[in-house]
Amino acid sequence: MTDRQQQAAPGKRIASRLFTMAGIVLLLASMAFAFYSAYIFEQRLAPEIDAKSLAVARSLQGDIERAVGYGIPLDALQGMDQLLDDVLAGNPELARVEVSTTGGAILYQRQHPDADTDIRTLHHAIADGSATINVGVRAGYVRNQLLGIFADAAIVLLVTLLLAMELLPLLVNRLLGIPLESLAGVMRAAIGGDYSRRVAIGAGGALGQLIDLCNRRLDGLRNRASDMHGTVVPYRAAAVTDIRAPMFVFVLAEELSRAFLPLYVQELYAPIPGLSEQAAIALPITAFMLFVALGTLFAGSRVRRVGSAHLFRWGVGLAAVGFFGLALAHSLYDLLLWRILIAAGYALGTLACQAYVAEMTTAENRTQAMSIFVGAVMVAAVCGSSLGGALADLVGYRHVFWGSLLLVLSSWLLFPRHAGNGMADSAAADEGVAGISGYRLLLADREFMTVMLGAAIPAKLILTGSLFLIVPLYLARIGSDAATIGRVVMLYYLLMAFGNPVSAYLARRFGLGLSLVAGGGAIAGLGSLAFLFLDGMPALLLAVIALGIGQTLATAPTFALALGAGHRSVAVLGQPGVLAAMRVIERAGSVVGPLLAGTLLAAFGFQATLVIIGGIVAVAAAALPLALRRRPATTVP
Amino acid sequence: MSRIRFFAAIIVALIGGLVTTSAATSAATAAADRTSRYRIAMIVYRGCEDACRGFHDYLAARKIPADVEILDAATDRRRLLDHIARVRRDKPDLLVTWGTTVSLEALGPFDAVDPARHIVDTAAVFMIVSNPVESRLVPNLQSSGRNVTGTRYLVPVETQLKAARSYLPFSRLAVIYNPLEENSRLTVASLRRLAATEDFTLIERQVGLRDGAPDPASIAPLMAGIRKAGAQLLYQPPDTFLHIQRDMLTAAATAMRIPVLAAAEAPVLNSQALMGVVNRYYTVGQLTAAQAEKILIGKVAPRDIPIMAPRNFSFLVNMRVARELQRYPPMKVLRFAEVVQVGK
Q1: Which residue did the predictor score with more confidence, B195 or A48?
Q2: How many other C-beta atoms lie within 10 A of the C-beta of residue A164?
Q3: Are A77 and B328 an interchain contact pair (Cβ–Cβ within 8 Å)?
Q4: ipTM above 0.90, yes or no
């Protein structure tokens, strides 16, 4: 089957056109909806706020008139500051409340310490006309509320578009693309004189009739040409992109709990001897990362023997049991077990998808095909973190895991049926396996390990330690709901998803390998130092945005830089082998990250932990060029 | 089928409802048609005041067929004993006692009841007793263990002080009391306990005695002393002697510019105490009548009825004194305070 690449083209074109159209429709509809809600909101909110502010003034009027009625002089009212402060605290839209005489002299006044200057003042006189109550409404209040609505709408829009982008091609391919391509393949073969094929996929409508017609015609031809003794080959076109949907759904299942997993663990926490509470909460993340690495390591060499479909089935099975248990978990211990099962399943599942890509591609187009894989993971992370957070607020942490279970199971239904029948050429299956001696060689390779220690490992350290563990815990501490946490985590993935192509282009076009790796690492780490000057949501947003930008700049060039630095090992093990080993070695950072963060958290608190981890990453990145300078021969391929 | 069952259920419910209603109505009619109305005797110490009126009004509002006979001791012990003897003889359906003195004389301490002296075979409800447990009228507030129940009227001292602080923050609190009265001694003891936890200094002064009785003339000199000691607020305990002398006491304090916090309502309503955190006597009278209703109509044994207190207290503020002292209540206090003597 050498015509795979041509086959993939028409379906893709139909899908991309359909997607563009559907995307435009979705975009227009969502935008219209967002603007309309905002319009309605503004129409209703502004008069609503004025009415409420006047009600506040009337209530104050009642208080003052009563006091004056008791014979208390207007300028001798006691406890007015406290009364007005209570009013301000209970009405966030108010910036200032004051009582002035008819002459304009201010008797009592309180205002928000951070009140903006843009204030619309409403006046309300007390009955005898001796004083006026002036209520200052923040003009920015409505604006801020609207901004919030738009931000929410934008996120919904984005997630909708991304989901549509994933699901639409799947539908188009299944209903149209693959039947058409299969038909084309059978007919191409027939024209070439090979009548042995038969279209092995049905379709609806005219297309189905056409396929039926073609099959019957070929059957007739075969019967007539009795000299053809060859067996009938059922033919079904396959494309490497078929893997994207199951991959996406499979990863989405795990990403759903990204934003709230530490909070769920915290709920189930019971003291473990010799471990602080924070380190214990980090344990499930650490265990997950460890078992993903081990699973990848040990299953890697077995892919060839069992085939991708079989491997994926195992992955789905393990993860499904894990999510089932997780939804019913009643202690930290059994939660740990379920997370380990999911980790093993995750490792097998992702490995199976990689194996499928290897089975369906040749060595030349494999690297490009692997980007399908990376893309699906990124989009799943963006959708999963935000969707999962919002779901958790709606139905509670536990019930989200039922959703994960459902997703994992449906990913099995989506997995290409035709895959994993030993189609892989041996070269493809051998890739990605470094072997014990290979790891020994790499670990002894000074230049290679310099890049790993300076960039790859710290990158994972801050990702799992700060973003996966500390960020949810900190946000929950300052009162954010799971949906907000999900959006903050999503921000990181969003930057990664959209920034990766940019940094890949920069690296290719300008050969900026080392500077991107070092600069990106420094940005990723330095963002966390925001906690030295700021606090709360602003500081955290700065840190997460810097992390996203820094890592999106550094990630792709890090692989290239490591290959260049470890060129002697590459010569022995081959490029794919080294890349696969890198993925395992960098997970050392993922394993250590949560534990380190948890321990630091127990000792120094949230802000210091983020600052320390950010500092480690920034220092490592800055040291990288110095460490590599001794060998200027490092080249970026 | 299910529809038929549904209608059947409704019909059964309707019939059940009719039967119950008619039964209840006939029972109520029977109660109203009683040939003899309930006879209630109420022994009071100083005439029929607000608690007594609250009791009457409650009975009237609830249309309880009862005749209340007021037996006024008019602060005279001999007359009180006459009333007790009469109740022992007449055996009314219910006895209501007003105040600690009347209640103890009529019912006796729970652990020293003398059937020859005390009323034992008539159900009794007491009210306006400052410390029913400490004065041994009942062993605890859940049950008297005998044919008696009642109501409380004092707001806990701690609650009084906390509420007072929302008006006038103080660190030095004075108290004047009659050492011969148990109520006063008990209250001062709890003030001493609270001084430690609520973080204030307590300035205690006992009323001087003359011929074994408290001397009204000793009050004015005491006032000068507590002013010198730096008192920011004077607490008037539930003390009968001081209650009688309340005009003089509160006037002397106000003249010294010391605001008075009274445990009872009268010093705020009629004299010159600045504030009081109290249960209104009228409310307490109504609550006492509700206890009586449980006994007469509900047929509940008094020993099975806990000693009750009104659910919400009143924060009384005497505006005339506030103006005179130039110590106006904070706006937030004014939102829930009951302001009295506004125009006087």
Answers
A1: B195
A2: 17
A3: yes
A4: no
